[in-house]
Design brief:
A hairpin with a 5-residue loop joins strand 2 and strand 3. Helix 2 packs antiparallel against helix 3 and helix 4 packs antiparallel against helix 7. The protein is rod-shaped, with a radius of gyration of 62 Å. By secondary structure, the chain is of the alpha+beta class. It contains seven helices and six strands. The two termini are 100 Å apart. The strands form two sheets. The protein has a four-stranded antiparallel β-sheet. A two-stranded antiparallel sheet has the order 4-5.
Length: 276
């Protein structure tokens, strides 16, 4: 069997693989007559074309050669079909693998995004809780300060009685130099006051309408130099003795200090409560 340089004899003669011997002879005669070199002198490839037609016809007219070629052709087709099926299988497997990889990447990305969103939400809630806690602390501190200041003002606005004593001699008409008018004159510079003279000489009660006025009088008023006064606060009426001080008579600095201490106590209580 002569070589056709890889050309299929059926293609050379332009017939089907199922063509009969008569169909093959007819196709050869038509093509040989058409492509004979004597009729195609101007075509330099006419001889090669004619030789291929002769070789293809000789191969297909030889029963054994044709059977062998048909077998080889069948094997090639089967191999090509196997390759095609394998390629399709491989392509399907590759596509399935790619789909799985893409799904895994999406799942991983979604998991990362969900984790980031959760972390951001936790941070947001923590910051919101801290902000609310801070606002609540500030509110409680303001309330504590306002309550402390209100208590101080209420205490300061209460009236206060001061017991006044001074030296005197028995049967002395001038009562040691102090009369009701004189005592009111001395104490009036500190605030509204009403003086009640005691039944005993050398005694009087100075009733101030404001506790802070009474505190100032206690601190600064000494009376006459030759007969100084001794001033003490009367009992508050609740059994608590006064020793020269009175609630609400603190200075502004003392009030602020007390309020700051109260605020600090509330802050510590809030902090301990939030960490427990």
């Amino acid at each position: 069997m002569e070589s056709l340089d890889g050309d299929c004899p059926y293609d050379v003669l332009d017939v089907k693989e199922t063509a009969t011997d008569a169909e093959i002879r007819k196709a050869y005669k038509v093509l040989a007559l058409k492509n004979h070199p004597d009729k195609n002198k101007k075509n330099p490839n006419a001889a090669d074309i004619f030789q291929k037609l002769v070789k293809a016809y000789d191969l297909l007219c030889d029963e054994n050669a044709k059977a062998a070629y048909d077998k080889v052709l069948s094997l090639k087709k089967a191999a090509k079909l196997r390759d095609l099926r394998m390629n399709e299988t491989n392509r399907a497997a590759k596509e399935d693998l790619e789909r799985r990889e893409a799904a895994y990447k999406r799942q991983k990305t979604d998991a990362v995004d969900a984790s980031k969103k959760l972390e951001a939400e936790i941070i947001r809630l923590r910051e919101q809780g801290q902000r609310r806690l801070q606002e609540e602390q500030e509110r409680l501190l303001k309330e504590a300060l306002a309550t402390e200041a209100e208590d101080a003002r209420a205490s300061a606005e209460k009236g206060c009685d001061v017991k006044v004593k001074w030296s005197h001699k028995a049967n002395e008409q001038e009562n040691g130099g102090y009369t009701r008018d004189e005592l009111e004159r001395l104490f009036y510079k500190y605030g509204d006051v009403d003086v009640v003279m005691g039944k005993k000489s050398g005694r009087a009660i100075a009733s101030f309408t404001c506790a802070q006025d009474a505190a100032c009088a206690l601190q600064y008023e000494r009376g006459h130099r030759n007969n100084p006064l001794t001033c003490v606060l009367l009992d508050a009426g609740d059994g608590t003795p006064r020793d020269g001080t009175y609630p609400g008579t603190e200075s502004l600095e003392e009030l602020e200090q007390a309020a700051m201490e109260k605020m600090q106590q509330v802050h510590v209580a809030m902090r301990d409560g939030s960490t427990s």
